[in-house]
Write a structure and sequence with these properties.
By secondary structure, the protein is of the alpha+beta class. It contains eight helices and nine strands. The strands form two sheets. Strands 2, 3, 4, 5, 6, 7 and 9 form a seven-stranded antiparallel sheet that branches. Strands 1-8 form a two-stranded antiparallel ribbon.
């Protein structure tokens, strides 16, 4: 289970940080002192204590239904429009104050969710590390064995075909487990790491972003292997480019477990427990799983994907296991070849 950096059980997170946040909460009740900027935010997050929050953005508010039979797309009704217009001049913010001089009198503590969120405060305060949130799948280690599909009691998991880099192709030249991946061949698939993808993957916040993770590779079909470069036709642009062989790794079009009906999922975690390849995880993303129609609850494979860097230890264990299997398979093949020659 992946932990937020502030959820790791250590002295700072269990003792120092809770005491500091409790002190800041107490200081916010003191007149004038409570309005200091360092008390309105936590760490590098934007201020959210005592901030005015719009209940409805102007784009959604201005939408009107053009087709009365269209029930798929949500549009605010006239009754709701009048209600929110009447409330437009009211201030809704966490820790909002009732008086200028004594903000601690009759102090409301309700957070106006979903218009106000505590995600940027300290996620570990309200999303524990072992929380069963949205399902996440590591494409690089999935083998499409369907153990997750077979064990799911609600039939909410579905397999999809995706272009991916296998875990055996993630090694670098000189690694002990290098050389067991997909061979580059004409007509096969190749992948090149996108510029800046490593930094984007490291900065991606799985618990709070609520969108598909950044792409790590661009994929294309190998056209020609002659010479020092490899000709690749990229899938996204359709252009052909000569690329140095060292910049490419093998890729494959394979079936992975990915498309999930979140409307049927009951977050039991059986898929994670049944997966023999360290591919399934219950993330601690608690939000971002709602919509205005049943179609919105279908999460495609790119949305449920978990980047290998976010579960590096599990990926490394699976890589070592598969490389060892490939090593033993190669040794047996060499032994059989030597016997046949003798």
């Amino acid at each position: 289970m992946a932990y937020h950096k502030h959820a790791t059980p250590n002295f700072r997170n269990l003792i120092i940080r809770p005491m500091w946040i409790t002190l800041k909460a107490a200081l916010r009740t003191i007149p004038y002192i409570g309005r200091m900027k360092f008390l309105q935010r936590h760490g590098t997050s934007k201020p959210y204590h005592g901030q005015v929050t719009e209940l409805w953005d102007e784009e959604e508010f201005s939408k009107k239904r053009t087709d009365e039979n269209d029930k798929e797309h949500f549009v605010m009704s006239e009754f709701d429009r009048q209600r929110y217009t009447a409330l437009a001049h009211q201030t809704y913010a966490p820790d909002r104050e009732t008086t200028e001089l004594f903000p601690h009198f009759e102090r409301p503590v309700t957070v106006m969710y979903p218009y106000e969120r505590l995600e940027e405060m300290e996620p570990w305060l309200f999303v524990p590390g072992n929380y069963n949130g949205r399902i996440g799948v590591i494409w690089e280690t999935c083998t499409a064995c369907k153990a997750c599909v077979n064990i799911c009691p609600n039939d909410c998991l579905h397999m999809e075909t995706e272009t991916r880099v296998n875990v055996l192709d993630m090694t670098e030249e000189g690694d002990d487990d290098h050389g067991f991946g997909v061979e580059l061949e004409v007509g096969g698939m190749a992948a090149r790491r996108l510029e800046g993808s490593e930094e984007a993957a490291a900065n991606f916040q799985l618990s709070t972003t609520h969108e598909a993770p950044p792409e790590e590779y661009e994929f294309g079909e190998v056209i020609n292997l002659t010479g020092e470069t490899i000709s690749v036709r990229w899938n996204a642009s359709g252009t052909v480019e000569d690329v140095a062989a060292d910049d490419l790794v093998g890729a494959e079009i394979d079936i992975v477990s990915g498309r999930i009906d979140m409307g049927r999922c009951m977050f039991c975690g059986l898929c994670m427990e049944s997966c023999p390849f360290n591919s399934f995880f219950m993330t601690n993303e608690y939000d971002g799983m709602s919509g205005h129609s049943r179609e919105d609850l279908w999460f495609d494979a790119d949305r449920t994907r978990v980047l290998p860097v976010q579960h590096a230890e599990a990926v490394d264990r699976e890589l070592a296991k598969r490389a060892d299997q490939a090593r033993k398979k190669a040794a047996k093949a060499a032994a059989r070849a030597s016997k046949s020659e003798a």
